[in-house]
Amino acid sequence: MSAADGLNFAQFRDKGKAALSAIPPQRAGVLPASTVGLTHHDWMDDNDQAAAAYGDAISRETLPPAKVENVPVGDVHTMQKGVYRGGVHKYLDRKTPTNELPQVSRVGGKNWIDDGHHRYAAFALGGATHIPAMVRDYDA
Prior knowledge:
There is one protein chain. The protein is of the alpha/beta class. It has one domain. Helices cover about 30% and strands about 25% of the residues. The protein contains 4 helices and 8 strands. It has a 6-stranded mixed sheet with strand order 2-4-7-6-8-3. A two-stranded antiparallel ribbon has the order 1-5. A hairpin with a 2-residue loop joins β6 and β7 (about 110-115). α1 packs antiparallel against α3 (about 85-90) and α3 packs across α4 (about 115-125).
């Protein structure tokens, strides 16, 4: 969580737990991507140009360098349909913030989460407006 969000970690954690408990239970404990602020794309959809561009970019042999950026919540896309409630709860149960940042690729002006869906969801449910992430900018 960025300092600009104005919440200390305990407030963030409590707000996230309350938000998580307010989401009705889903089958197999999976929360749809949209309930945690992620825009889902189906990589099997041949008409999804954004998903195709993302797939092409991340399969390159040479990756751009990663740098820490604060990525706006709600401006993140994923190929994953959802996250497990228990995985999100794991990050909200911590006494201190995790040092493991979500991994994001910027392709075609969109931010795609590569790794850290549960960490992202915990930040989003906790009320963060921006999420610190390791970003590889393929557009640069």
